[in-house]
Design a protein that fits this description.
35% helix; Rossmann fold; Phosphoribosylglycinamide formyltransferase; binds 5-O-phosphono-beta-D-ribofuranosylamine; 8-stranded mixed beta sheet; phosphoribosylglycinamide formyltransferase activity; alpha/beta
Length: 191
């Protein structure tokens, strides 16, 4: 059977990581099996590390604060990822800005909790909620040198309901994230 390998990078809670492991890892689509060959986390206490263990997967911890600068950290990421020989890298809640050292060498996709190009950056959920827009949403895009700025792959929106709270807004976003990211992975790798 034809196998395509992925690496997943995450930083914290790992709900998107778990979702991918549930829906995609070791599953076959169009005769192609997707295998998660590498997990990397930059925070040693991230809950996602425990989630991965449920699937029998160990996470490699590479702490960014042990490196002198972003470039040195990115060099290490590239070295480890290249060794694993994966077809696609998934940033699933990986809260690091990546330099061209990474973005020029690695084919990666990122999940972002807004309708890009609106609300780039780390506070997209709160900022999109507070904007008063009647639509919120989620984007999956290729990773480029520009933060949250690479070519879009998939987007899905939802409508604000009357008196929607920030918690409800966030809940909708996570629900859509859990559909959209695995769909994008399957489309890219198994078309
Ligand atoms: C998600 O909202 C993702 O869009 C953002 O970080 C969050 C990660 O959540 N980049 P989790 O760690 O996957 O639960």
């Amino acid at each position: 059977m034809f196998i395509k390998k992925i690496a997943i990078l995450f930083s914290g809670n790992g709900s998107n990581l778990e979702n991918i492991l549930q829906k995609v890892h070791n599953r076959v689509f169009n005769g192609i099996k997707i295998e998660c060959a590498l997990l990397i986390c930059n925070k040693k206490d991230a809950f996602g590390i425990e989630r991965a263990k449920k699937f029998g997967l160990e996470t490699m911890i590479i702490e960014n604060n042990k490196f002198q600068n972003r470039e040195e950290f990115d060099k290490k990421l590239v070295e480890v990822i290249k060794k694993a020989n994966v077809d696609l890298v998934i940033l699933a809640g990986f809260m690091r800005i990546l330099t061209p050292i990474f973005t020029n060498r690695i084919k990666a996709i990122n999940l972002h909790p807004s309708i890009l190009p609106l609300f780039k950056g780390a506070n997209a959920i709160k900022e999109s909620f507070e904007s008063g827009m009647m639509l919120g949403g989620v984007s999956v895009h290729y990773v480029s040198e520009e933060l949250d700025g690479g070519k879009l792959i998939k987007q899905r929106a939802f409508e604000r309901t009357r008196d929607m709270s920030l918690d409800e807004w966030e809940e909708q976003i996570h629900k859509i994230e859990h559909e959209l990211l695995s769909e994008a992975i399957i489309e890219i790798l198994c078309g």
